[in-house]
Design brief:
Layout: H1 3-25, H2 28-45, H3 54-106, H4 109-120, H5 125-132, H6 136-154
Helix pairs in contact: 1-2, 1-3, 2-3, 3-6, 4-6, 5-6
């Protein structure tokens, strides 16, 4: 393809390509960027592309550039969403942990001990009883009372979930 044929193809197909890309993206700036990339790719390969095949080459190239752009935007959006979720989760988790630690410090020691053994360490009631020297029923009572105290101190029990 010669330079005048290239210029003619820009004049002939730019608007059609733009409409094609814009209908798919609905973003005028991105559509302009994709059309510019498409014509840049054609310019780089203009000696290899025949003028009779330029229309097909342009639409194929625009389509592939559009797909690449869409994938890239989706990946960027997913990454940004993941980063915001992770940063938000850490902050919320940190605040929750801080609140819980402050509340645990305010309840009686025996309640704190049995709650930590049950909820953090995963011991059953009998094992906690062996560790603390309490009966299983006493362990249950202290856990129940400790959880009630934590609910009062923290507020909404759903915050812990």
């Amino acid at each position: 393809m010669t330079v005048p044929e290239y210029n003619h193809s820009v004049h002939e197909y730019a608007d059609r390509l733009f409409r094609f890309v814009l209908k798919n993206l609905r973003n005028e700036e991105a559509a302009n960027d994709i059309i510019q990339d498409t014509f840049e790719k054609l310019w780089r390969r203009h000696p290899d592309v025949t003028y009779s095949k330029v229309r097909s080459y342009l639409f194929t190239t625009a389509y592939h550039t559009l797909v690449d752009y869409t994938r890239k935007q989706r990946n960027v959006a997913e990454l940004e969403q993941l980063e915001s979720l992770q940063s938000g989760d850490h902050k919320d988790h940190f605040d929750l942990k801080k609140q819980l630690n402050e509340a645990l410090a305010k309840i009686p020691e025996i309640q704190r001990t049995v709650i930590l053994l049950r909820d953090y360490e995963g011991y059953n009631y009998e094992e906690i009883g062996e560790i603390t020297g309490l009966s299983a029923s006493q362990v249950k009572v202290y856990i129940y009372r400790g959880r009630l105290a934590l609910r009062r101190l923290i507020g909404n029990p759903e915050v812990l979930v």
